[in-house]
Design goal:
The structure is a single chain. The chain is mostly helical and 74 residues long. It has one domain: Methane Monooxygenase Hydroxylase, Chain G, domain 1 (Up-down Bundle). The protein is built from five helices and no strands. Helix 2 (8-24) packs antiparallel against helix 3 and helix 3 (28-48) packs across helix 5. The chain is globular, with a radius of gyration of 12 Å. The mean pLDDT is 91.
Length: 74
C-alpha cells in the first residue's frame, strides 16, 4: 500500500520492521535483504532531494543511520 500511494517513509519503516522480525526469527539473510530494501528507499529519497540541508538532515537522522548500519551487517 505504501508503494501504491507513494509513501517512502512508511515503506522504509516497514522494510526495517520486517528486518527486525526476521532477525528475531534468526533469519539473518532475509533480515539483511529487508534492511537493504529500506536503505534503497532512503537512497531514492536522498538522491531526489535538491536542497543540501534537507539531504544532510535526512542523512543525520538516527533512524536512517541505523538502517544503513543494519544493511551493512552492523
Amino acid at each position: 500500500m505504501a508503494e501504491a500511494i507513494g509513501n517512502p517513509p512508511q515503506l522504509w519503516k516497514t522494510h526495517t520492521a520486517l528486518g527486525r522480525l526476521h532477525a528475531d526469527l534468526r533469519q539473518p539473510e532475509t533480515a539483511r535483504r529487508a534492511w537493504e530494501a529500506a536503505r534503497a528507499v532512503i537512497e531514492r529519497v536522498r538522491t531526489g532531494l535538491r536542497h543540501e540541508r534537507l539531504r544532510a538532515s535526512l542523512e543525520r537522522a538516527p533512524e536512517v543511520r541505523r538502517v544503513y548500519e543494519l544493511a551493512a551487517g552492523a
